Amino acid sequence: MDPNEVVKSSDITLRVGLNAEHVPVKIEWGASDRNGGVLEECKAMAVALFDKEHRDTLRIDLWTKEMQVLEMDRFMYQTLRSLSQTYLKATQNKELAEDIAKFAHYFGQQTEIVPKDQ
Q1: Is residue 9 predicted with pLDDT exceeding 80?
Q2: At what angle do helices 69-91 and 94-110 cross, to 10 degrees?
Q3: Can you give the pTM of this predicted structure?
Q4: What DSSP element (H or E) covers 83?
Q5: Distance between CA atoms of 92 and 101, rounded to whole angstroms?
């Protein structure tokens, strides 16, 4: 079997509702193979794609007006933590992944997501 042969596909849907000033007021997402593709509401999203041809990263970062600063702090902390794990899995570079995790911990302490004594 060819390891590059596509044997299954999933569609991911992102729907952003904007107000008259073009500010996001509602963000929904869903996947065709999760909950039957039913869209679920969220307050923020951060999507990064690496363009194959141009070798550049494309990003979409959106959050609704109701997203509170403490929620954004938690969102960023959890994103940074997961990036260290993603980087380790993709590269096996344990030392640099640990440095990213250390920064995530520092960020968590500075925003009081993580208690300073931990």
Answers
A1: yes
A2: 170
A3: 0.87
A4: helix 69-91
A5: 14
